[in-house]
Amino acid sequence: MDLLVPLNYLTLSLGCYLTCLFLQACAREHDVMRGMHALALGVLNGSFWFANPLYFAALVMHRKQPRVALYLGCSALLLSGLMIPLGWLDWTPVPDSPNGPGLLPGYYVWLLAMLVFILGQWRYRHEPAGSSRVPLLGWPAWVLIAGIVVTVPLAFTPWSKVPFRSVPEQTSCIECGGN
Questions:
Q1: Which residues are within 8 A (CB) of 165 and not within 5 positions of it... i.e. 6 or more apart?
Q2: What is the C-alpha to C-alpha distance for residues 110 and 107, in angstroms, rounded to an integer?
Q3: Where are the domains of the chain?
Q4: What are phi and psi of 26, to 5 degrees?
Q5: pLDDT tens digits for 18-58?
Q6: The pTM is what?
Q7: What is the Cα–Cα distance from 15 to 17, expressed in whole angstroms?
Q8: What burial letters (b/e) apply to 113-145, b meaning 16+ CB within 10 Å?
Q9: Keyword Transmembrane helix: yes or no (predicted)?
């Protein structure tokens, strides 16, 4: 019975994070990237990617310094969430593509992973360092972390390529006089 670990906010957050890696996250011009591509190539793209190290630092510190972990989680969510208001101002690095909106479901699940962590960590923010009341990263969380680590190399395989979503071109009809 000791092998069964109740579902906690850490497991749920990591589950959302792993899920976002397999979903379509963003579209740029003629490319649609899964979350695993955005994570693997994120260092090249810019500052929004740095929400990932903040999130993982928060996970590492969630028990030893609960309040610092909460601040790191909030910083990660704010940094990653900036793409939405910047998109409203047309300043986003992920503009709308000809194939649809630039931000796709994987992006929002990525935000959800951080939000779940923050909501869970909020409960334990006043606990002393190493408190037994703060949940541990149990074996399900470590399995999910291993899944995240294994998923990054998958971004470089043909299997992970997202099928191109083409938009039908506007062609004129010769038989109907170009209408």
A1: 27, 32, 99, 100
A2: 5
A3: 9-160
A4: -155, 155
A5: 999 999 887 766 677 788 888 887 745 566 778 899 999 99
A6: 0.77
A7: 5
A8: bbbbbbebbeebeeeeeeeeebbebbebbeebb
A9: yes
